[in-house]
Amino acid sequence: MEPIDHPVSRYALDVIEGREVAGELVRLACQRHLTDLETGRDRGYYFDCKAASRILNFSKLIQHTTGPMGGKPLALEPWQAFRHGSVFGWKRTEDGLRRFRATYHQVAKKNGKTTDTAVPMLFTSLFDREAAPQGYCTATTRDQAGLLFGELRRMVKASPVLSELLNTANKHEITSGHTGGLIKCLSRDGNSADGINPHFVARDEVHRWTDRELAEVVVNSMIARAQPIDWAITTAGADTASICGEIREHSENVLRGSVTDDRFFAYVAEPPHDCDINDPRVWKMANPNLGVAFKEEDFRAKLDEALAIAGRMPNFRRLHLNLWTEGAQSWIERSVWDLGATPFDPAMLYGRKAWVGLDLSKTTDLTSIVVAIPYEGQIFLICYTFLPSGPKGFIQRAQKEKREYIQWRDQGWLEVHGGGVVDESAIIERMEMIRKIFDVQEVAYDRWGMKYIAKELLKRRFPLIEHGQGYASMSSPMKRFEEAVAKSRLRHNGNPVLGWAVGNVHRDEDAAENIKPNKARSKGRIDPAVAAIMAVGRAEAAEGKRKAREIGT
User: Fold this and answer.
1) Which residue of 16, 17, 266, 495 has the fewest CB atoms within a 10 Å radius of its CB?
2) Comparing 4-13, 181-190, 254-263, which segment has the lowest mean pLDDT?
3) DSSP for residue 375
């Protein structure tokens, strides 16, 4: 068989020639395959039809074990055959080993991406000619990792051939006497990853991975294997400034050709972000198993629910249209926020009128001071963020809560105070510094936890303005903030801590269309965003009064 006639290539051709509905990034993945058939040998790669067919034929030994498909063979659909056949079919000319070592598969929920991961997991344990191969089902929680592992055990038991080759007697691992291999679960909250030597790793629901420790340990532990596979599967996430968001961005860069990474395979089933969600073609772009795993009328029913109940729409777009959102109920899109990241020199603003928002932390939260300086039609933000190291030390806190804290501290975006609480005297000193370099007009603050600092600032004659956190106090400032972002009037210097906090905000709205940020329902810390909203709100209110006075005169 010629490579162009293989099922992998036939799917690619069907996508490129319009016979198969697919989004742009899938189309680019298909074009990459077809282009590499023509030019890959120049870079030392070739497509091995027999190797690609071997993994596709192996899948026929596996049966579905749950749902209406239970007991039926796991017949790979063309889009699945393209992914599996690509990863196992592309080889290096120099040694015949696999080309792709890292893979990323982003598909909407309920399209069988977890189930079809059983194919490469079981195959590499049995037929990859690897001594004592280790396979791991990994996730952030034991329960999530156990979903794939439990499916694997059921599949092995249901197959007469596989049950002869693999032993499932131990409920915690699957072993192979034939190869000396094993398959186990691995999670952030479970057993240790120390001492592992993986040949195949399935990383499930990567959008939920909040710290890098497990990911780095797992991937770095594969270095001793000749042709390991990192198989990352996920639905779109809610925070592009994350581990998964970075892989998603790398995927797009590779597929568009702006980054060369011949060892990386990506399949990202996304419709356009501004798509018509009522178009069945859009549904198919995110759900390649539409019409196979579930019916169009069932998908339409879920869409109708999301249209009727606005609060369900963000999750519908993320889970069922495979589109990234920022926050459980998206407030400000990351791409729009990033328009204000153009660098500026704070020194150019010294001496100008400024409005300050101060959000003091509880024991473990962030404390933030945001200075808003209107200048030449724009509002420049300077954000200072403080974090207590915690009782077990800063490094342990960062690894548990958010590993980026370390990088942000080293780059000067985050100031860490020793102990369990932020140093209030340091906050007061920072306020004094701000007053020396800016013409401070107001300091807006939430009175919670501010008794000592407010008393000290009043002694020092700071112009304090108490600022509540309910709808009455926050609605207008938050709307002013949104308007400034939408009109590209907000400049934040690319501060990653502030950007992260803005992406975390859950936007509450009452029947009168008043809005406020909801700390309890937000998916992460939002203190810098709250301080920024107060500062911008006060600055914009003052600007409105100034214009009114000018009109009156």
Assistant:
1) 17
2) 181-190
3) E
User: How big is the CA angle at 455 (ends 452 and 460), to the nearest 5 degrees?
Assistant: 125
How far apart (Å, rounded) are the C-alpha atoms in residues 27 and 16? 6
> Range with the lowest mean pLDDT among 180-184, 200-204, 446-450?
446-450
CATH 3.40.50.300 residue ranges of the chain are 3-286
Find, among 97, 389, 408, the residue nearest to 226 by Cα: 97
**Residue/partner pairs of 379-382 with CB below 8 Å, 24 or more apart:** 379/484, 379/489, 379/490, 379/491, 379/536, 379/539, 379/540, 380/344, 380/346, 380/349, 380/491, 380/493, 381/490, 381/491, 381/492, 381/493, 381/495, 381/498, 381/532, 381/535, 381/536, 382/346, 382/349, 382/493
Which CATH code is given to the segment(s) 340-552? Answer: 3.30.420.240
CA neighbor of 187 nearest in space, from 201, 171, 176, 174: 201
What's the fold here for domain 3-286? Answer: Rossmann fold (3.40.50)
Q: What is the pLDDT of residues 305-341, one digit of tens each?
A: 878 655 568 878 999 999 997 644 557 777 788 889 9
Please tell me whether residue 146 adopts helix, strand or coil conformation: helix
What does the pLDDT average to over 158-170? 93
